[in-house]
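Chapter review. Work through the record for Retrovirus-related Pol polyprotein from transposon RE1 before attempting the end-of-chapter questions.
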Amino acid sequence: MNATLHVVCYLKGSPHTGLVFHSSNSFQLAAYTDADWASCVDTRRSVTGYCVFLGSILVSWKTKKQNTVSRSSVEAEYRAMASTVCELQWLCYLLKDFGITTPTPIPFWCDNQAALHITANPVFHERTKHLDIDCHVVRNKYKDGFISPSYICSRDQLANLFTKVLPIRRFLDMLSKLGLFTQHQLEGGGVKKASVFSD
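Structure tokens for Retrovirus-related Pol polyprotein from transposon RE1:
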């Protein structure tokens, strides 16, 4: 009931907010992934959050409680990375059905350096056998050149919107980077071509 009330309050406070799709001829996918470790107070399960862009357009996003309890923040982040890689693969298959080839490797941003080291360094895998399947998914896609994982500081991590409570000013800034604007911003000409990627 609490979650329902939270959603209703959000919708009531933002009736004129929507996604803006700027024209783009870029078919480059890019992903931001994050996890909030042990954030559920009842089950201590972590929350996965990610967002995927096609060019500068937000095309996919998700927030979901993880199926198992993670013993560390690295484990939670790595599970989030595996979920994001699966979403990227599905989007590539979908675009391929439309006759669109996406450039690889796909930029893939995570704010946990230890999780990134596990991806690039197979020596770490002996210490993470309980993450075996997720390790194989992410590691194989990295070795195949499908993804290019990079570190991003937590302050700039767009996926934080899906996993953490943010201060209002930062929250609104992140919303604009996702391409979410109010009707008033659009009518007043306050929306420029927003891009989360540097030119």
